[in-house]
Amino acid sequence: MADFLLTLSHQIFCMKFLVVVTIAFCSLFTIHATAQTDAGKPVKIAVFSPVYLDSAFTNNNYKLGNSNIPKNILPGLEFYTGVMMAIDSLQSENAHIEVLYFDSKSSDQPMNKVLAQPVWDSVSLIIASFNNRTDVKPLADFAAKKNIPLISSTFPNDGGTSNNPFFILINSTLRTHCEGLYRYIQKNYSTGNLVYIKRKGAVEDMIQSIFTEMGKNTPSIPLKYKTIELTDSFSSKQLLSSLDSNKQNIVICGTINEPFGARLVKTLNASRRYQAVAIGMPTWDGIKDLNQAASLDSKGIEIIYSSPYNFSRNEKLSKYLTKKYKDIYFARASDWVFKGYESMYHFTKLLLQYKDDFVNHLSSKDFTVFNEFDVQPVKLKKENIVPDYLENKKLYFIKKQDGIVKSVN
């Protein structure tokens, strides 16, 4: 572990140096992935990820020690690492590109200063990993002003963006997940004993309203479920009293709260009297107990949730990236690494292939890396002429049971 932390500290140090050079001399610092013999100017791509380098360094001195790497640094750092691995792949293919990297959480160079740099008229694509709603709209508005497509790879929120066909949301919104889950349950579990679990909260009210809306507007037979409201400290009796020992029970968790979801699964799993399927929100992908084969929270019960991403660890490319990452950083590559790689490689290849018609080919299966995307225009009001943003509507439904994880669609 100490070796890993030392290596990671070195990686962060190198990133700090590169980003400082990028911002100070943007025309000089580029990650080139182009053959010297290629004619014409390279396609320029900007990448943003939240690495919080200023919190880790004083000048160029790493100040957090070998045992203190804050959790808020790791997702953005791993996304960046995946981007760099994709650039290696693109370079091996002599892709004619130039990449600029920015730490979106830099206090020395905040977003307004970065966007004031004289490089943007020649940028053809922006790829961003957001982690905060308030960061989305400023960059999205800037991209629209400059007519630059902006790929939002990791954050499932439009950030209040409107009238912006240049903002492309790859990590689908909660509304899209709820609508997809409703249709999935209709198709696969409509005859079971359906129980909708409600928790108090504004987000939970929104989720419930989407399910209600879907029931009113569906062309098929609407789902018939009973709704039970539970507190965070609900008892086993409160949950199980709604189940039927003679039927398959489909328990729908209407909250993104992870501890609540984990408690729900654990309670269902502890009672073998009832056959149950637990259907949850996309946040269930982050509940670590559900990934562990030996975990009591996952053993036995069937768990279903939706995700715009389905990274198979058994494919050739996955194995290659996993090994490469482990050889360099002495750790297992997380999904953030794969998201960074896929965003950089897939959308760069589409941009090079389709150039000025890039936005109309966002759903193309050309150059598919791990996932397929179905990018559609979203109008928050029917009367709107211009889309408020573009969104990936493709969902994978993930099943976990006895520690085994697989896609079921």
Class derived from helix and strand content: alpha/beta
CATH fold node name of the largest domain: Rossmann fold
Provide the helix percentage: 25-40%
Q: What ranges have pLDDT less than 50 throughout 5 or more consecutive residues?
A: 1-10, 13-30, 34-38
Shape: globular
Radius of gyration: 23 Å
Overall pLDDT level: 87
**In the residues, how many domains can be counted?**
2
Top-tier CATH class of the largest domain = Alpha Beta
Judging by the overall fold, what is the CATH architecture of the largest domain? 3-Layer(aba) Sandwich
Number of strands: 17
The biggest sheet amounts to: 8 strands, mixed
User: DSSP strand (E) fraction?
Assistant: 15-25%
Strand arrangement within the widest β-sheet reads: 1-5-2-6-7-8-15-14
What sequence of helices (H) and strands (E) makes up the elements?
HEEHEEHEHEHEEHEHEHEHEEHHEEEE
CATH superfamily of the largest domain: Response regulator
Give the termini separation.
Answer: 38 Å
